[in-house]
Amino acid sequence: MVTAWADGDGWLSVDTQEWIDERGEYSEHLTDDLREWMDEQDHRYPTAEVLTLWAKDRTGTAPVGLYGDGTCWEHNTCTVNNVLSDEIGFVVFSAGGELGDLMITISGDGGLFHSPTVYRSTVDDLAEWADYDCADGVCANGHEWQVTFGWLLHSETTTGFDRPSVTGQARVPDDDRERAYIACPDCGHALQFTA
Ligand SMILES: [Zn+2]
């Protein structure tokens, strides 16, 4: 999705729920279990520490993080450096036992922690959850551009520091925001993105 206000003023985003659904499967059972456990244990906020305690309580072992060490991997999308359309926090860890690899969203309202929602990770490599700031774009002429850090455009032909940005390439034809697109830096045609 492209949101743009004017030429040179726009950004790229992907539907957060679709992005999550491509990587994990919602577990009603685990979500209910976690929320009930938090009530019983009197934990008000689902901080990463609390989520780790829950996993440990359920499996008997401490979970491990994204790269096979640490307790969990946390990310909050309340920054410009991502392509997700909603502000959420999420925690990813490998809980072992019956729980397996989990991703848990822990916010949805300006970074306030509430309503933890548990997803079973369906990706082979948990590091794919760290892929929240990339998208691949291609134009009608086959020029390929990648978005990194949510806003920087680069291709195999770009060199040096003078790199185009998503914002700079935003175009709004006839002031019609419905038709907004990100222009290919090579030829000006619209880039089509996948995240
Ligand atoms: Zn092009």
What is the succession of H and E elements?
EEHEHHEEEEEEEEEE
Distance between the termini: 10 Å
- Oligomer class: single chain
Q: What is the domain total for the residues?
A: 2
Gyration radius from CA atoms, angstroms: 19 Å
Poorly predicted sequence stretches spanning 5 or more consecutive residues: none
Instruction: Count helical runs.
Output: 3
Beta strands, count:
13
Judged by helices, strands and strand pairing, the structural class is: alpha+beta
Shape: elongated
Can you put this structure into words, describing what you see?
It is a single chain. The protein has 195 residues and is an alpha+beta fold. It has 2 domains: 2-12 and 133-194, no CATH class; 16-129, no CATH class. 16% of the residues lie in helices and 31% in strands. It contains 3 helices and 13 strands; from the N terminus they run E-E-H-E-H-H-E-E-E-E-E-E-E-E-E-E. It has helices spanning 16-21, 28-41, 48-59; strands at 2-6, 9-12, 24-26, 73-76, 89-94, 101-109, 112-121, 135-138, 144-148, 152-154, 170-171, 181-182, 192-194. The strands form 4 sheets. It has a 5-stranded antiparallel sheet with strand order 3-7-6-5-4, covered by helices on one side. A 4-stranded antiparallel sheet has the order 10-9-8-13, with no helix packed on it. Strands 1-2 form a two-stranded antiparallel ribbon. Strand 1 (2-6) and strand 2 form a beta hairpin. The chain is elongated. The relative contact order is 0.19. Bound molecules: zinc ion (ZN). The site of zinc ion has 7 residues, from loops.
